[in-house]
Amino acid sequence: MTTDTAKTGKRGEVVLRLVPHLTDINANGHIFGGWVLSQMDIAGGIVAARIARGAVATVAIESMTFITPILLGDVVSVYAVEERRGRTSVAIRIDVVAIRGVGMDEVLLTSGVYTFVALDANHRPRPLPDF
C-alpha cells in the first residue's frame, strides 16, 4: 500500500480497518456519508487522545472532501496523522482508503482534518502535554 498524501507527505498509521455492511448503504447503493464521518471521528479521536494523554472532544471538522463513493465490499482503512497542534487542541489529518476489487486496487475515498481539544476531569479544555 502507498502511504503518501499530497499535503502532508505521509498518510500516518492505519487506526481502523473495517468492511461496511448492507445496512450502511444509501438509496444510491453507496455507503452513507455519515457512516464514514463517524469512522473518521473515531480514528481521529484515538490518535488525539494518545497525543493528549487523556480525554479529548471533537470541536471542528475543518475540511472534508468526499472523493469517490464507498462501495459495498470495499475493505476500508482509516489513516490518521497529527497535522498541527495548539495549546489545547490538535488537528488530525484523516484519509480513508479502500482496497477494491479482484485487483486489490487502492482507492482514496475521503480526506479531512478534524480538530480535537484535550479535556480535564471537569470536561474543560486543558493544555496538551509537551512533546
From TrEMBL:
InterPro entries: Cytosol_ACT, HOTDOG_ACOT, HotDog_dom_sf, Thioestr_dom. SUPFAM superfamilies: Thioesterase/thiol ester dehydrase-isomerase (SSF54637). Residues 10-122 form the HotDog ACOT-type domain. PROSITE patterns: HOTDOG_ACOT. Keywords: Hydrolase. Gene3D superfamilies: Hotdog Thioesterase (3.10.129.10). Belongs to the acyl coenzyme A hydrolase family. This is Acyl-CoA thioesterase. It comes from Sphingomonas bisphenolicum. The gene is yciA.
